[in-house]
Design brief:
DNA polymerase, domain 1; binds iron/sulfur cluster; ten-stranded mixed beta sheet; single chain; two-stranded antiparallel ribbon; 12 helices
């Protein structure tokens, strides 16, 4: 829902200001799916709104629910025909988190990511970003799904700091009490490591959580698998994270995808621990070890390949992941092994590719 267009509609129709509050509450807080459900408005006004306005900026192509019911993926088609994906996850019973996209595709080209393989098509508008949250609010209501919808993570398709104007505007709408009303601390922005963006987040939204898709603690490997590292290498990232602590004094989540034989050796764990200690404030750095969800396409690298013989990157086994965690602990770094949700419906980390 484009809030500016809604305001304009009310002005053009000489409607009193309190109507805006009523409509915003019904749409953003209550999650109505059509204007006709807003019974505080006259029938005439509801009909006019149905004719002239729309609540969501896209159509729903497909919704898939995982067998355990803990993750639901929606494929959405924008007005221009682009396909984007968003996922609703229940990390624990009674709570729901939405993982939202901010771009169609992604320019960052991380070698292990399905979105990265699509390439970049365009930035999503502010409305298209927040409408994903609105969609899930409506979905929960329509399907009588209980639980609190409490967290939003910018971890879907795209790099949030490469669409900062629209992402920052969407954050403002999500934390606005009169609109979505989420707490700043319920929001997380995940970046592949764009230093300038980290600085902006710290200055503009110090209470919003920051997650870094680190995945490698050596420049050599990070250069190979995450081209962002050639622009902002590990040293620049370290300096940005130090600065982030000075500005916010808040926790940072370091995401580390477990790739079999690629970044999961004892040496990799030692390098990661050394890197963490070189940043300092280790009590504020939390490492999440994430199971990798294999994507079926072959991955091509420009230099020496460390892939399996079929050219497919595989996830580290449970045992190797556990050993990696123990190795980190030996170096005084605590980590959480994160449960991966939604693999079977391709809704998990790195699997979103706007496929029908
Ligand atoms: S991991 Fe994130 S930043 Fe990297 S290509 Fe995928 S969507 Fe883009």
């Amino acid at each position: 829902m484009d809030i500016k267009k809604l305001e304009q509609f009310l002005q053009e129709n000489n409607l009193p200001k309190f109507r805006l509050g009523q409509i915003q509450k019904a749409i953003f807080a209550d999650g109505v799916s059509s204007f006709s459900e807003i019974t505080t408005l006259s029938k005439e006004l509801r009909e006019k709104m149905e004719e002239e306005m729309r609540i969501l900026s896209f159509e729903v192509e497909k919704v898939l629910t995982a067998e355990d019911g803990q993750s639901i993926k929606a494929l959405l088609k924008t007005v221009g025909g682009d396909l984007i994906e968003t996922v609703l996850i229940s990390p624990k019973p009674g709570t729901w988190s939405a993982c939202i996209s901010c771009q169609v595709g992604c320019a960052m080209g991380c070698r292990f990511c399905a979105t990265g393989k699509m390439g970049f098509k365009r930035n999503l508008t502010t409305e298209e970003i927040t409408d994903q949250v609105l969609f899930w609010r409506q979905y929960l209501k329509r399907n009588n799904i209980e639980g609190s919808f409490s967290n939003i993570v910018y971890m879907g398709m795209g790099e949030p700091f490469l669409n900062w104007d629209n992402v920052s505007e969407s954050i403002k709408n999500l934390i606005d009490e009169k609109i979505f009303g989420f707490g700043s601390r319920s929001l997380s922005v995940s970046t592949s490591g764009i230093v300038e963006g980290i600085e902006k987040l710290a200055m503009e939204f110090p209470q919003v959580n920051l997650a870094i898709s680190l995945h490698f603690a050596s420049d050599k490997k990070r250069d190979l698998y995450m081209p962002v590292n050639k622009m902002d290498n590990l040293e620049s990232l370290r300096n940005a994270l130090k600065q982030y602590f000075e500005t916010t004094n808040r926790k940072i989540f370091l995401e580390y995808i477990m790739l079999d034989g690629i970044n999961d050796t004892a040496l990799d764990a030692k390098l990661l621990a050394d890197y963490i200690y070189s940043i300092g404030n280790t009590h504020l750095l939390h490492v999440n070890l994430i199971r990798y969800n294999t994507i079926t396409e072959k991955t091509e690298l420009n230099s020496e390949s460390e892939l399996s013989s079929e050219g497919i990157i595989n996830s580290s086994s449970k045992t190797r992941t556990q050993l990696f965690k123990q190795e980190l602990e030996k170096h005084r770094v605590n980590a959480t092994i994160r449960k991966s949700l939604g693999e079977e419906i391709k809704a998990a980390c790195g699997q979103l590719a706007g496929e029908k």
